[in-house]
Amino acid sequence: MSFTYRNGILHAENVPLPELAARHGTPTYVYSTAALRARLAAYVEAFRGIDPLICYALKANSNQAVIATFAREGAGADVVSMGELKRALAAGVPARKIVFAGVGKTAEEMRFALQHGILQFNVESEPELRLLSDVACGMGVTAPVALRVNPDVDAKTHAKITTGKAENKFGIDMDHAPGVAALAKSLPGIALEALALHIGSQLMDVAPFRTAFARLGALARQVNAAGGPALRRLDFGGGVGVGYAGEAPPDLRDYAEAVRSAIAGLGVGAILEPGRSLVAEAGVLLGRVIRVKEGVAKRFAIVDTAMNDLIRPTLYEAWMPILAVSEPRPGANRALMDVVGPICETGDYLALDRELPPLNAGDLFVVGGAGAYGAAMSSSYNTRPLAAELLVNGDQVAVIRPRQDIDALIAGEKLAPWLTS
Ligand code: LLP
Predict the structure, then answer these.
(1) I want to staple 162 with a disulfide (CB 3.0 to 4.6 A). Which of 17, 200, 228, 232 is the partner?
(2) Is 290 in a helix, a strand, or coil?
(3) Angle CA(271)–CA(273)–CA(279) in degrees, nearest 5?
(4) What is the spatial order of strands in the sheet that 9-12 belongs to?
């Protein structure tokens, strides 16, 4: 295990968290190399025989050291912007292992990706396909394309992260897909090589995956039967959910089985784009209690981690575990409290009505499962500097992003000329 109590103190691998707080301050994201590697290895193991290209979805955690940890193990990358593409290349992901997803790619982004020779563009609409054809022709190259389809399957997850329903902005409707595939085969500068889908994030049940993957497999057969070069790959989108409250996530072997049956007999390779499940449990957000305030209606633990550091509880009503760094004594009294940040918004909380062991001013705690969509979604709202990020590897600790410097943050802004005289 990567985050465990040893002698009553929570450790990241072999490193006691109070040591990290003393040296690097709080709030700080702490990631475990062993956990990152173990999660990737679990996918590789479950998919043995299918041997998919695992394109880590950078959006979950785009720190260079995290990407490089996966790249060293052979993973590719799923990127959704020029910025993420540059990050993947900078961290050493070979261009031939990069898929470019996203509903709003611009001509400039397409050009950049074509220059670098990425594996495939996941195209989400006919206008996007036509633009990509124009851009590729203008450069005298051919763009490898996957059509991302929308299978109209309810992923049974939070509305803000459901992506595969007909009313969502993503993908090409199943009914239109054969026509767009035919168009892709006829357009200059386009090589239709794959089909793709992504139905949502934080799925805790394999059934919607199974339904969607079967639809994708059937569509692939139809597209192949229509003639032209056969498809080479199917891209199954993001990975499984995470049991933030200790609930069992989908078994990766069942998930792999759904992929296996979708590609059976098709002669195609598989691509996966997991993000959350590779990094969530490999990271914690380490914070400190500033003070405890007894309200009339509630007790508030006011902490130095806020919605700018971790927005998931506010944005998705996400339940994330909170653990005291000093292990509570067995039988310690627990009390109901809200764990809130210092930001001037009522929505600034990490937990509401949570029963927790006593937390006092100065105590350290962590938010668990914070490796995914934590630092990547953080901001400097209220001019709170972006948190530091640390990567632990056994006894070693590396600062993989120093805490943002407030003076540098301010110096990055410029007065307009008419304000300087
Ligand atoms: N591929 C595509 C096309 C995606 O849109 C996503 C996530 C993934 C892969 C990775 O999915 P995962 O394996 O992480 O489930 N910020 C939200 C999650 C947003 C997910 C968006 N798309 C959260 O914190 O819950």
Answers:
(1) 200
(2) strand
(3) 140
(4) 3-6, 9-12, 15-16
* pLDDT value for 164: 76
Catalytic residue, chosen from 159, 296, 297, 344, is 344
**Predicted confidence (pLDDT) at residue 161 exceeds the cutoff of 90:** no
Domain positions in the chain: 3-30+280-411, 102-272
- Cα(119)–Cα(208) distance, rounded to whole angstroms? 27
Q: Which atom of ligand 1 is nearest to the CA of 101?
A: 3
What is the predicted pLDDT for the residue at 159? Answer: 82
d(C-alpha 338, C-alpha 356), whole Å? 9
Give residue 378's identity as a one-letter amino acid code. Answer: S
Q: Among residues 380, 386, 384, which one has the least CA distance to residue 285?
A: 386
344 is catalytic: yes
Domain at 3-30+280-411: CATH code: 2.40.37.10
Mean pLDDT of the chain: 96
273 CA closest ligand 1 atom index? 9
Whole-model pTM?
0.97
pLDDT mean over 285-294? 97
Mean pLDDT of 139-146: 98
239 CA to centre of ligand 1 in angstroms = 8
Tell me, yes or no, if the two domains 3-30+280-411 and 102-272 fold the same way: no
For residue 239, the ligand 1 atom closest to its alpha carbon is 13
pLDDT in tens, 385-418: 999 999 999 999 999 999 999 999 999 999 999 9
- pLDDT class of 198 with cuts at 50, 70, 90: very high
The residue to mutate among 54, 197, 201, 378, having the most atoms of ligand 1 within 8 angstroms of its beta carbon, is 201
Q: Ligand 1 centre and the CA of 238: distance in Å? A: 6
Written out in words, the top-level CATH class of the domain with range 102-272 is: alpha beta
Segment 307-344, tens digit of pLDDT:
999 999 999 999 999 999 999 998 888 999 999 999 99
* Euclidean distance between CA atoms 152 and 208, whole angstroms: 10
Residue bearing the CA closest to ligand 1, atom 10: 238
On whether the CB atoms of residues 272 and 55 are closer than 8 A, the answer is: yes
Q: Where does ligand 1 bind, in terms of residues with CB under 6 Å? A: 57, 60, 78, 101, 161, 163, 198, 201-202, 237-239, 273-277, 312, 316, 373
Residue 31, beta-bridge partner list? 283, 391
**CA 9 remoteness from chain centre:** 29
Instruction: Return d(Cα 290, Cα 298) in angstroms, integer.
Output: 17
